[in-house]
Amino acid sequence: MRGRRSTLSFLLAAMVAGGAAPGAQAVAPGQPAPDLRLQAEDGKVVSLAADKGKVVLVDFWASWCPPCKTAFPEVDSLYREFQPRGFDVIAVNLDERRRDAEDFLAGRPHVMQVAFDPEGKSPRAFGLWGMPSSFLVGRDGRVRFVHVGYSGKVLDSYRREIEQLLAERP
Amino acid sequence: MQVRQRRGRSARVGTSLGLIGLLAVLALVAVTGLDWAQSTLYVQLHSFGDTRGVTVLSPLVDLEKDFSDRTGLRVKFGVDAVTAASDACARCHPQGAQDRRTYADFALLRKLGSARLELGGEISRENFYASESVTASLSRDFNRGNTTIAGAYSFSLNNPELHPSRNVEQQISHDASIALTQTLSKTTIVQLSYDFNRISGYQSSPFLRTSVNGQMVLGVVPDLRNRQAVSVRVRQALHAGTYLQADFRHYFDSWSVGSNTLSLGASHYFSPVWLVGFSYRWYDQTGAFFYQPEYFGTPEYFTADYRLAPFSSGLYTGRVVYTPEDGLFGLPKGTALEFQYDRYVGSNQFQAAVFSGGLRIPF
Amino acid sequence: MRQRTRVMVLVGGVVLCSALAASCATVQPWERRELANPCMVFDASAAQAAYDAHWQSAREGSAGGFGFQGGGCGCK
What we know:
The complex is a heterotrimer. Chain B is mostly beta strands.
């Protein structure tokens, strides 16, 4: 009985302890951001390389993801606010069907760039482990902040982090 | 006089609890400006009627609110207005009898990395039955969310009140369960679970009488019941907005009641706005080892509880969900109206019909 | 009745075996579009599932067995 009880406690502790650790293999802060070359809404090619010297938020989203729906207009507002100071957003859509993305975008006017990656090459390169995920890339082309999931707290973090990165010189 | 006072008191307690529950819900709804994530308010009305002469009208309010990306709260408050003209009640109440069950349910949810902890409880009160329970559950995702292992434990203290003697009995229930949820493909997901429930204490029906040597007496059943269930559930997405569901449960307990439940269903989106589903559930159970339609001699256990007799049944369920593009009645986009109709037909001449209507509001 | 039971256990076994026989692929977090649909979530409506379990266990000799929500978009 004692043996069974201690096994159970160990299992429970392992589950919680293991759970508290961060997810595996996401591109870590400090590492160079993987190259990104995707097609945008207007058909043109969008790439991270073209944004060198700017602070870029690479935001991965999909039309079926409820937190992404909440985040979308807020990220667009961030873009409007910080763009004049050298900030850019690449909102990478991961819908496997373009139609789903188009239906989503039709009802949501936006200014930021939306790029499409139906095959999922870029999230794989970034090591994405949860939806939604965003990567803030500094002027030096390195990933500086990673956020998985979305909430008002994340939005507040974005502001602080973008301000910090904009203040840096390349 | 004493009986009337005690009935008045339990009604008062029920009402107080109801008010507390309502206030709690309102307080939570009023609390805005906190860190927002997905929250849902669900208002439902169920109408249940069966051939034993019982009708129940049950409104309930279920609020699920995320306070941060790590913490959530769920509060549920409901009332079952039970009207019984059943054979048991008709003995003394030929015009029928009315009862009200009030219940409040709450749970605190906390994310710890890939793990999720939930602590909660429920309080339920009605004329001849009081119940309190506490629950704890822990779940953890593995393999990029493809595998989830979950475990839960709950403890309940139930107090049935005998009628008309007004003696209060006690019943304690421990329930432990585990489940494994596994994604098999982009369109297939399966869940396996095992549930163990141990109930000790008074478990007879306080109302139903059976014939022992020609005399009608209240039943006497064992004080201990160990119940186990194993289940497997599958969900499969087909092309063109069609989904299949299959659930199977095998149940067995220490009173020799054993059952198999198989339910198969399909849902289809006729448009992004209209979802229609249908399912059929087969149910088949053996009787308790001590069940007899009537008893002779000196049986140790005897019961009139029809739930301990062997029988089988079929349950037809139809469901419609309406989620308009731009919200409903001025409520936010994503608000959905749901309707469900259930028709239960038992081989023991028992039948029931249930109608449920609900409004789900995300905010 | 035993025949009926046997048939149900057999169908249940077939469902289980076919489910497990399909290869367990690792589905990436961004590939969960279908899994995110409420029709694919176990007990998507916890309140409805609790109500159904409540009246069914009040009219049958069995209880429990289907207690867990599961699946879904897996969004963090």
